[in-house]
Design a protein that fits this description.
- There is one protein chain.
- With 338 residues, the chain is α/β, with parallel strands linked by helices.
- It contains 10 helices and 7 strands.
- The protein has a 7-stranded mixed sheet with strand order 3-2-1-4-6-5-7, sandwiched between helices.
- Helix 2 links the parallel strand 2 and strand 3.
- It is elongated, with a radius of gyration of 26 Å.
- The structure holds uridine-5'-diphosphate and magnesium ion.
- The site of uridine-5'-diphosphate has 16 residues, from strand 1 and helix 3.
C-alpha cells in the first residue's frame, strides 16, 4: 500500500522533528481528549522536538471536530483524515509513510498503551542504538478471556510463520528508527501487517514491557470480523500453507482410496457387493483424490506467483565498508541531541 501522496522527507526545506507519534483514530470522541491530556505533558517533557500524526480513519462521530479543536492549541498535532474507514493497519501505513521524525512511535488512541513508555522506548533506542523497540504486553489481565485466548493463538501461529525473532505479545505499540521506517516504506506490500513485517526486517531491536491497560472510554473497534481479517491477512502475507492444504488432502485421500480399493476388491471377489457398486465406488474415491492433488498443484504454483508478486526485497544491508563511517540503510545519525 504505497502512499504516493506522502510528502518526501526533505531536511533542506522543512524542519525535521526528532520524534513522530502516530495515532490511528477511529470514532474515539470519548477517549481522544483523555489521551491527549495524558500524552501531551509527556511529549513536552521529553525535551526533543516532536510531531503527533493523528490519522482519522474516517470517523463518523465528533472525532474530527475534536481533533481540529485540539490542534488549535497544540500545533504539534498534525491531522490526516481518511475519506472513509479503511482499517487500523491502513491508518498505521499512512502515519508511518507521512511521519517525518528520526524516530516514529505508533500508539493506540484509547490509552491501552501507556504513553509514559514512549520516553522509555526512546531512551532505550538512543542508548543502545536500536532500530526497533517493541512494546511487549506483560499482562493482559484487563482483556477479556476471549481476547486473551484469540491473541494467544494468533501470536503462537505468527511466531511459527515469521520465526522466533517475532516477540510474543507485541502489538502495534512500538518505536521505529528512520532506517526501519525507510525500509518499511520500501516494501511493496498492499496489505501490510506491521506486527509481522517489523520483526521480519530483522533490524536491531529491544523490548519495553508494559501492562495493557483498560480502554479509557468507548468500546473496541475490533469486532470478530476485523480480527478474522487481520489473522487471514497475517497468514496469507507470510505463508502459502493454506494453498498446500489441497495437496495434503489429495495425498491422504489417495492413500485411503488405495485401502478402500483393496477392501472393495475383496468384497467383490467374495460376492458380497451389489453389482456396479465396486466400480462406482473406486472411481469416485480415485477421482476425488486426483482432483484434490491437481488443485494442490495449482496452489503450489499460485503460491510461488504470489510471493513473486509480493516482490519483497531479499535482504537489507546493515553495513557496507564502502560507505565509510556512515551507517548504511540510508540512516543518518540524528544530530539533535536529546
Ligand atoms: N482503529 C482505527 N480504525 C479501525 C479500528 C480501530 O484506526 O477501523 C484504531 C482505534 O481508534 C485505536 C486502535 O486502532 O486507536 C486500536 O483499536 P481498538 O482499541 O478498537 O482495538 P483493541 O485495542 O480493542 O484491539
Ligand atoms: Mg484498544
Amino acid at each position: 500500500m504505497h502512499d504516493a501522496a506522502a510528502p518526501a522527507r526533505d531536511e533542506a526545506t522543512q524542519p525535521v522533528p526528532v520524534l513522530s507519534v502516530v495515532i490511528p483514530i477511529y470514532n474515539e470522541q470519548e477517549a481522544l481528549p483523555l489521551t491527549v491530556a495524558r500524552l501531551r505533558p509527556i511529549l513536552d517533557g521529553m525535551g526533543v522536538s516532536y510531531e503527533v500524526v493523528g490519522i482519522d480513519d474516517g470517523s463518523t462521530d465528533a472525532t474530527p471536530v475534536i481533533m481540529q479543536k485540539i490542534r488549535q492549541e497544540w500545533p504539534e498535532l498534525r491531522i490526516v483524515r481518511f475519506a472513509r474507514n479503511s482499517g487500523h493497519q491502513a491508518a498505521l501505513t499512512a502515519g508511518i509513510h507521512r511521519a517525518l521524525g528520526d524516530y516514529v512511535v505508533s500508539i493506540d488512541a484509547d490509552l491501552q498503551d501507556p504513553p509514559e513508555k514512549i520516553t522509555e522506548m526512546y531512551a532505550l533506542a538512543r542508548e543502545k542504538d536500536l532500530d526497533i523497540v517493541y512494546g511487549v504486553r506483560g499482562d493482559r489481565g484487563t482483556d477479556t478471556f476471549f481476547k486473551r485466548r484469540t491473541a494467544g493463538a494468533y501470536y503462537w501461529l505468527m511466531r511459527k510463520l515469521v520465526g522466533k525473532n517475532m516477540p510474543n505479545q507485541a502489538g502495534d505499540f512500538r518505536l521505529l528508527s528512520r532506517a526501519a521506517v525507510d525500509a518499511l516504506k520500501s516494501l511493496p506490500e498492499h496489505q501490510p501487517v506491521y506486527r509481522l513485517l517489523v520483526p521480519w526486517l530483522g533490524f536491531s531491536s529491544g523490548e519495553v514491557v508494559y501492562v495493557r491497560e483498560e480502554r479509557v472510554a468507548g468500546s473496541t473497534h475490533y469486532p470478530l470480523s476485523k480480527m478474522v481479517r487481520l489473522a487471514l491477512d497475517s497468514i496469507t502475507n507470510f505463508s502459502a500453507g493454506p494453498l498446500r492444504l489441497a495437496t495434503y488432502l489429495g495425498l491422504m485421500s489417495f492413500l485411503i482410496c488405495f485401502g478402500l480399493g483393496i477392501y472393495t476388491t475383496v468384497q467383490y471377489a467374495l460376492g458380497a457387493t451389489v453389482p456396479g457398486w465396486a466400480s462406482l465406488f473406486i472411481g469416485m474415491v480415485f477421482l476425488g483424490g486426483v482432483q484434490l492433488v491437481c488443485v494442490g498443484l495449482l496452489g503450489e504454483y499460485i503460491g510461488r506467483i504470489y510471493s513473486a508478486v509480493q516482490a519483497r526485497p531479499a535482504y537489507f544491508v546493515g553495513y557496507d565498508s564502502a560507505d565509510g563511517d556512515v551507517p548504511a540503510r540510508g540512516e543518518r545519525i540524528p544530530e539533535h541531541a536529546a
